[in-house]
């Protein structure tokens, strides 16, 4: 059976950077869930899954002007709906060295249901300050919010949603005895990478 290592968490925490470096260092297949979310959403909508169907029908205004608590709750429901597609695609990958995969879709509760041991799952979530600072530099943000009448309010709702998501992931990690890293920006990328490498039992390779 191909060994798979999972990195969950919330957006803008450094998951992708860490995973990409680890995949290169240890010659692992990198499966980035976010690259397939649009496809999964469409498939879920065709099957009548409520949140997937709702997502493809909503405008940016309808998405981002909702209460952040509702957005957060539906984000978790969305990942429950598409998790079968993520799992199915992972099973199709053939790589002798193993797979490393990351995405907010790897909610601790869902990972626990798969029976993934704590040695092969870790979450990385940002502090809200770190999250805000890094989102402000992302060039895709204006495109995501295009169509919103009050872009600052929409952005604030988005950030509040992600902060709430991070808190829930941390809570689920604690309840399911998974390791949770909170990235406040004080650790270098190399330090973060090495911490995850040690957790997964990889030999530490100094850059």
Approximate shape: globular
Distance between the termini: 30 Å
Query: Which structural class fits the helix and strand makeup?
Result: alpha/beta
What is the H/E order? EHEHHHHEHEHHHEH
What are the low-pLDDT stretches, counting only 5+ consecutive residues below 50? none
Please give the number of β-strands: 5
As a percent range, the share of helical residues equals 55-70%
Strand content: 5-15%
Instruction: Return the average pLDDT rounded to an integer.
Output: 95
Radius of gyration computed on alpha carbons: 17 Å
The profile of the biggest β sheet is: 5 strands, parallel
Spatial ordering of strands, largest sheet: 2-3-1-4-5
Number of helices: 10
In words, what does this structure look like?
With 207 residues, the protein is an alpha/beta fold. The protein is built from ten helices and five strands. A five-stranded parallel sheet has the order 2-3-1-4-5, sandwiched between helices. It is globular and about 50 Å long. The mean pLDDT is 95.
In short:
The protein is 56% helix and 12% strand. It is an alpha/beta fold and 207 residues long. The chain has a 5-stranded parallel β-sheet with strand order 2-3-1-4-5, with helices on both faces.
Considering the chains and any ligands shown, give keywords for the structure.
207 residues, alpha/beta, five-stranded parallel β-sheet, 12% strand, globular
Draw up the topology in text.
Blueprint: E1 4-9, H1 15-26, E2 29-32, H2 37-46, H3 50-57, H4 60-64, H5 68-91, E3 99-102, H6 108-113, E4 121-126, H7 128-135, H8 141-144, H9 151-176, E5 179-183, H10 189-200
Parallel strand pairs: 1-3, 1-4, 2-3, 4-5
